[in-house]
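ASSEMBLY PREDICTION REQUEST
Request ID: AP-0331
Submitted by: J.K., bench scientist
Number of chains: two
Total residues: 322
Priority: normal
Notes: Please return the full assembly, not individual chains.
Input sequences:
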Amino acid sequence: MTTAGPRSGCAINAAVEALGDPWSLIVLRDVMFGNRRSFRELLTRSDEGIASNILSSRLRSLVAAGLLTKAESTRGRRGSYSLTEAGIQTLPILVAMGTWGLAHRDGTPQLRIRAELLRDGGPDLVERLSEELREIHLGIARPDPDAPRVAEALAEAAARA
Amino acid sequence: MTTAGPRSGCAINAAVEALGDPWSLIVLRDVMFGNRRSFRELLTRSDEGIASNILSSRLRSLVAAGLLTKAESTRGRRGSYSLTEAGIQTLPILVAMGTWGLAHRDGTPQLRIRAELLRDGGPDLVERLSEELREIHLGIARPDPDAPRVAEALAEAAARA
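STATUS: Completed
Returned structure:
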Protein backbone atom coordinates (compact mmCIF):
# COMPACT_ATOMS: atom_id res chain seq x y z
CA MET A 1 0.00 0.00 0.00
CA THR A 2 1.49 3.31 -1.01
CA THR A 3 0.70 6.39 1.05
CA ALA A 4 -0.28 9.46 -0.96
CA GLY A 5 2.05 12.41 -0.37
CA PRO A 6 0.95 15.73 1.13
CA ARG A 7 -1.62 17.82 -0.75
CA SER A 8 0.87 20.69 -1.01
CA GLY A 9 4.27 21.84 0.27
CA CYS A 10 2.75 24.24 2.80
CA ALA A 11 3.76 23.77 6.45
CA ILE A 12 0.28 24.70 7.66
CA ASN A 13 -1.22 22.08 5.34
CA ALA A 14 1.22 19.50 6.75
CA ALA A 15 -0.15 20.08 10.25
CA VAL A 16 -3.76 20.10 9.05
CA GLU A 17 -3.21 16.75 7.35
CA ALA A 18 -1.98 15.26 10.65
CA LEU A 19 -4.49 16.97 12.97
CA GLY A 20 -7.36 18.35 10.90
CA ASP A 21 -10.31 16.21 11.92
CA PRO A 22 -12.92 16.43 14.69
CA TRP A 23 -11.07 14.20 17.17
CA SER A 24 -7.26 14.05 16.87
CA LEU A 25 -6.60 17.15 18.96
CA ILE A 26 -9.18 16.02 21.53
CA VAL A 27 -7.38 12.69 21.95
CA LEU A 28 -3.98 14.44 22.20
CA ARG A 29 -5.43 16.83 24.77
CA ASP A 30 -6.59 13.92 26.93
CA VAL A 31 -3.25 12.10 26.70
CA MET A 32 -1.39 15.34 27.42
CA PHE A 33 -3.47 16.98 30.14
CA GLY A 34 -5.38 14.04 31.56
CA ASN A 35 -2.45 11.60 31.38
CA ARG A 36 -4.86 9.09 29.89
CA ARG A 37 -2.60 6.43 28.46
CA SER A 38 -4.90 3.49 27.75
CA PHE A 39 -7.69 2.99 25.23
CA ARG A 40 -10.04 2.28 28.11
CA GLU A 41 -9.29 5.54 29.98
CA LEU A 42 -9.47 7.59 26.79
CA LEU A 43 -12.84 6.07 25.97
CA THR A 44 -14.61 5.96 29.31
CA ARG A 45 -13.39 9.32 30.61
CA SER A 46 -14.04 11.26 27.41
CA ASP A 47 -15.85 14.53 28.19
CA GLU A 48 -17.02 14.65 24.59
CA GLY A 49 -18.18 11.02 24.53
CA ILE A 50 -15.92 9.80 21.74
CA ALA A 51 -17.19 6.61 20.10
CA SER A 52 -14.97 3.56 20.45
CA ASN A 53 -14.54 2.96 16.71
CA ILE A 54 -13.50 6.58 16.21
CA LEU A 55 -11.07 6.45 19.12
CA SER A 56 -9.53 3.26 17.70
CA SER A 57 -9.15 4.85 14.33
CA ARG A 58 -7.68 8.11 15.68
CA LEU A 59 -5.16 6.32 17.88
CA ARG A 60 -4.01 4.27 14.89
CA SER A 61 -3.60 7.33 12.70
CA LEU A 62 -1.83 9.34 15.41
CA VAL A 63 0.66 6.49 15.82
CA ALA A 64 1.09 6.28 12.04
CA ALA A 65 1.62 10.06 11.87
CA GLY A 66 4.35 9.90 14.52
CA LEU A 67 2.49 11.76 17.28
CA LEU A 68 1.97 8.82 19.61
CA THR A 69 3.73 5.55 20.29
CA LYS A 70 2.06 2.41 21.59
CA ALA A 71 3.91 0.23 24.06
CA GLU A 72 3.59 -3.53 23.76
CA SER A 73 0.63 -5.17 25.43
CA THR A 74 1.64 -7.26 28.41
CA ARG A 75 -0.21 -10.14 29.96
CA GLY A 76 -3.72 -9.00 30.81
CA ARG A 77 -3.12 -5.40 29.77
CA ARG A 78 -3.60 -3.59 26.50
CA GLY A 79 -0.75 -1.45 25.22
CA SER A 80 -0.36 2.05 26.58
CA TYR A 81 0.09 5.21 24.53
CA SER A 82 2.78 7.86 24.94
CA LEU A 83 3.44 11.17 23.22
CA THR A 84 6.42 11.45 20.91
CA GLU A 85 8.44 14.68 20.68
CA ALA A 86 6.25 15.64 17.70
CA GLY A 87 3.19 14.93 19.82
CA ILE A 88 4.51 17.05 22.69
CA GLN A 89 5.14 19.86 20.21
CA THR A 90 1.42 20.07 19.42
CA LEU A 91 1.04 21.77 22.82
CA PRO A 92 1.30 25.30 21.31
CA ILE A 93 -1.46 24.34 18.85
CA LEU A 94 -3.67 23.22 21.74
CA VAL A 95 -2.89 26.45 23.61
CA ALA A 96 -3.76 28.55 20.55
CA MET A 97 -6.98 26.57 20.08
CA GLY A 98 -7.91 27.02 23.74
CA THR A 99 -7.17 30.74 23.61
CA TRP A 100 -9.48 31.12 20.61
CA GLY A 101 -12.19 29.04 22.29
CA LEU A 102 -12.03 31.21 25.42
CA ALA A 103 -12.43 34.39 23.41
CA HIS A 104 -15.17 33.28 21.02
CA ARG A 105 -17.22 30.56 22.61
CA ASP A 106 -18.84 29.91 25.98
CA GLY A 107 -17.71 26.99 28.09
CA THR A 108 -17.89 25.63 31.59
CA PRO A 109 -15.75 27.35 34.26
CA GLN A 110 -13.91 24.20 35.24
CA LEU A 111 -12.71 23.57 31.71
CA ARG A 112 -12.12 27.25 30.90
CA ILE A 113 -9.67 27.55 33.80
CA ARG A 114 -7.20 25.19 32.15
CA ALA A 115 -7.27 27.18 28.91
CA GLU A 116 -6.96 30.48 30.81
CA LEU A 117 -3.87 29.32 32.70
CA LEU A 118 -2.26 28.11 29.48
CA ARG A 119 -3.12 31.31 27.64
CA ASP A 120 -1.79 33.56 30.41
CA GLY A 121 1.28 31.48 31.20
CA GLY A 122 2.87 32.27 27.84
CA PRO A 123 5.87 30.59 26.19
CA ASP A 124 7.46 30.03 29.59
CA LEU A 125 4.61 27.85 30.81
CA VAL A 126 4.54 25.99 27.50
CA GLU A 127 8.24 25.22 27.83
CA ARG A 128 7.92 24.02 31.44
CA LEU A 129 4.94 21.83 30.61
CA SER A 130 6.80 20.45 27.57
CA GLU A 131 9.71 19.47 29.83
CA GLU A 132 7.31 17.66 32.17
CA LEU A 133 5.76 15.84 29.23
CA ARG A 134 9.21 14.78 28.00
CA GLU A 135 9.89 13.38 31.45
CA ILE A 136 6.58 11.48 31.65
CA HIS A 137 6.39 10.29 28.04
CA LEU A 138 10.00 10.07 26.87
CA GLY A 139 11.86 9.44 30.13
CA ILE A 140 13.96 12.58 29.71
CA ALA A 141 14.72 14.19 33.10
CA ARG A 142 13.62 17.80 33.54
CA PRO A 143 16.43 20.41 33.58
CA ASP A 144 15.26 21.51 37.06
CA PRO A 145 13.97 18.48 38.96
CA ASP A 146 12.83 20.60 41.90
CA ALA A 147 10.60 22.97 39.95
CA PRO A 148 6.89 22.67 40.85
CA ARG A 149 4.91 20.75 38.27
CA VAL A 150 2.67 22.72 35.92
CA ALA A 151 0.44 19.71 35.37
CA GLU A 152 -0.41 19.54 39.06
CA ALA A 153 -1.14 23.28 39.19
CA LEU A 154 -3.50 22.91 36.21
CA ALA A 155 -5.32 19.99 37.78
CA GLU A 156 -5.67 21.77 41.13
CA ALA A 157 -7.01 24.92 39.50
CA ALA A 158 -9.57 22.91 37.55
CA ALA A 159 -10.64 21.06 40.70
CA ARG A 160 -11.14 24.34 42.60
CA ALA A 161 -13.40 25.71 39.85
CA MET B 1 -33.88 23.31 12.88
CA THR B 2 -32.19 23.30 16.26
CA THR B 3 -28.41 23.33 16.43
CA ALA B 4 -26.87 20.81 18.83
CA GLY B 5 -24.76 22.44 21.55
CA PRO B 6 -21.02 21.85 22.00
CA ARG B 7 -19.80 18.34 22.86
CA SER B 8 -18.30 19.66 26.11
CA GLY B 9 -17.49 22.87 27.97
CA CYS B 10 -13.80 22.73 27.05
CA ALA B 11 -12.36 25.77 25.24
CA ILE B 12 -10.09 23.55 23.13
CA ASN B 13 -13.11 21.48 22.08
CA ALA B 14 -14.93 24.70 21.13
CA ALA B 15 -12.17 25.58 18.66
CA VAL B 16 -11.94 22.02 17.34
CA GLU B 17 -15.69 22.06 16.66
CA ALA B 18 -15.29 25.24 14.57
CA LEU B 19 -12.03 24.31 12.82
CA GLY B 20 -11.42 20.58 13.20
CA ASP B 21 -11.81 19.24 9.69
CA PRO B 22 -9.43 18.80 6.74
CA TRP B 23 -10.23 22.10 5.03
CA SER B 24 -11.45 24.95 7.27
CA LEU B 25 -7.98 26.15 8.26
CA ILE B 26 -6.79 25.83 4.66
CA VAL B 27 -9.63 28.09 3.47
CA LEU B 28 -8.93 30.60 6.27
CA ARG B 29 -5.23 30.53 5.36
CA ASP B 30 -6.03 31.42 1.75
CA VAL B 31 -8.41 34.24 2.71
CA MET B 32 -5.90 35.55 5.25
CA PHE B 33 -2.55 35.22 3.45
CA GLY B 34 -3.62 35.09 -0.17
CA ASN B 35 -6.35 37.74 0.15
CA ARG B 36 -8.57 35.40 -1.83
CA ARG B 37 -12.03 36.81 -1.29
CA SER B 38 -14.20 35.11 -3.90
CA PHE B 39 -15.33 31.51 -4.30
CA ARG B 40 -13.68 31.48 -7.72
CA GLU B 41 -10.26 32.59 -6.46
CA LEU B 42 -10.39 30.21 -3.52
CA LEU B 43 -11.23 27.33 -5.83
CA THR B 44 -9.00 27.92 -8.83
CA ARG B 45 -5.92 29.04 -6.91
CA SER B 46 -6.05 26.30 -4.28
CA ASP B 47 -2.58 24.75 -3.83
CA GLU B 48 -4.25 21.69 -2.34
CA GLY B 49 -6.85 21.41 -5.09
CA ILE B 50 -9.94 21.77 -2.92
CA ALA B 51 -13.08 20.36 -4.57
CA SER B 52 -15.82 22.85 -5.32
CA ASN B 53 -18.52 21.10 -3.27
CA ILE B 54 -16.21 20.97 -0.26
CA LEU B 55 -15.24 24.63 -0.66
CA SER B 56 -18.94 25.58 -0.84
CA SER B 57 -19.67 23.61 2.27
CA ARG B 58 -16.70 24.98 4.23
CA LEU B 59 -17.48 28.59 3.33
CA ARG B 60 -21.07 28.09 4.49
CA SER B 61 -20.00 26.58 7.79
CA LEU B 62 -17.30 29.21 8.40
CA VAL B 63 -19.92 31.92 7.90
CA ALA B 64 -22.33 30.08 10.21
CA ALA B 65 -19.57 29.72 12.83
CA GLY B 66 -18.87 33.47 12.75
CA LEU B 67 -15.39 33.29 11.20
CA LEU B 68 -16.28 34.78 7.82
CA THR B 69 -18.90 37.15 6.50
CA LYS B 70 -20.21 37.15 2.97
CA ALA B 71 -20.98 40.45 1.31
CA GLU B 72 -24.04 40.69 -0.89
CA SER B 73 -23.67 39.68 -4.51
CA THR B 74 -23.88 42.62 -6.86
CA ARG B 75 -24.83 42.62 -10.51
CA GLY B 76 -22.65 40.15 -12.33
CA ARG B 77 -20.52 39.32 -9.28
CA ARG B 78 -20.80 36.66 -6.61
CA GLY B 79 -20.53 37.80 -3.01
CA SER B 80 -17.09 38.24 -1.51
CA TYR B 81 -15.88 36.83 1.79
CA SER B 82 -14.20 38.71 4.62
CA LEU B 83 -12.73 37.64 7.94
CA THR B 84 -14.54 38.57 11.12
CA GLU B 85 -12.60 39.45 14.29
CA ALA B 86 -13.00 35.81 15.34
CA GLY B 87 -11.61 34.77 11.97
CA ILE B 88 -8.64 37.12 12.31
CA GLN B 89 -7.98 35.66 15.76
CA THR B 90 -7.36 32.22 14.24
CA LEU B 91 -4.01 33.61 13.05
CA PRO B 92 -2.15 32.29 16.14
CA ILE B 93 -3.62 28.85 15.45
CA LEU B 94 -2.33 29.01 11.87
CA VAL B 95 1.08 30.15 13.13
CA ALA B 96 1.21 27.27 15.64
CA MET B 97 0.17 24.81 12.94
CA GLY B 98 2.82 26.16 10.55
CA THR B 99 5.51 26.01 13.24
CA TRP B 100 4.67 22.35 13.89
CA GLY B 101 4.64 21.57 10.17
CA LEU B 102 8.09 23.17 9.71
CA ALA B 103 9.55 21.07 12.52
CA HIS B 104 7.99 17.72 11.71
CA ARG B 105 7.23 17.53 8.03
CA ASP B 106 9.01 18.35 4.78
CA GLY B 107 7.62 21.00 2.50
CA THR B 108 8.58 23.17 -0.43
CA PRO B 109 10.92 26.12 0.23
CA GLN B 110 8.53 28.71 -1.16
CA LEU B 111 5.77 27.71 1.22
CA ARG B 112 8.07 27.02 4.18
CA ILE B 113 9.35 30.62 4.04
CA ARG B 114 5.96 32.00 5.01
CA ALA B 115 5.71 29.67 8.01
CA GLU B 116 9.32 30.46 9.03
CA LEU B 117 8.72 34.22 8.99
CA LEU B 118 5.54 33.82 11.06
CA ARG B 119 7.25 31.48 13.52
CA ASP B 120 10.26 33.76 13.99
CA GLY B 121 8.32 37.00 14.04
CA GLY B 122 6.66 36.13 17.35
CA PRO B 123 3.67 37.83 19.00
CA ASP B 124 4.77 41.20 17.60
CA LEU B 125 4.43 40.07 14.01
CA VAL B 126 1.11 38.39 14.79
CA GLU B 127 -0.21 41.63 16.25
CA ARG B 128 0.96 43.73 13.26
CA LEU B 129 -0.51 41.27 10.79
CA SER B 130 -3.77 41.19 12.78
CA GLU B 131 -3.97 44.99 12.53
CA GLU B 132 -3.50 44.80 8.76
CA LEU B 133 -6.22 42.18 8.52
CA ARG B 134 -8.59 44.36 10.55
CA GLU B 135 -7.92 47.18 8.12
CA ILE B 136 -8.50 45.03 5.02
CA HIS B 137 -11.43 42.95 6.29
CA LEU B 138 -13.14 45.16 8.87
CA GLY B 139 -12.25 48.65 7.69
CA ILE B 140 -10.52 49.50 10.96
CA ALA B 141 -7.54 51.81 10.37
CA ARG B 142 -4.16 50.58 11.60
CA PRO B 143 -2.77 52.34 14.71
CA ASP B 144 0.35 53.27 12.68
CA PRO B 145 -0.67 53.90 9.07
CA ASP B 146 2.95 54.36 7.96
CA ALA B 147 4.26 51.01 9.22
CA PRO B 148 5.43 48.69 6.44
CA ARG B 149 2.96 45.96 5.71
CA VAL B 150 3.74 42.48 6.96
CA ALA B 151 1.58 40.90 4.26
CA GLU B 152 3.74 42.45 1.54
CA ALA B 153 6.94 41.27 3.24
CA LEU B 154 5.55 37.73 3.44
CA ALA B 155 4.56 37.72 -0.22
CA GLU B 156 7.93 39.10 -1.33
CA ALA B 157 9.82 36.51 0.71
CA ALA B 158 7.77 33.70 -0.79
CA ALA B 159 8.34 35.07 -4.29
CA ARG B 160 12.11 35.21 -3.77
CA ALA B 161 12.20 31.58 -2.63
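REVIEWER COMMENTS: Chain B has a mean pLDDT of 92.
SIGN-OFF: pending second reviewer
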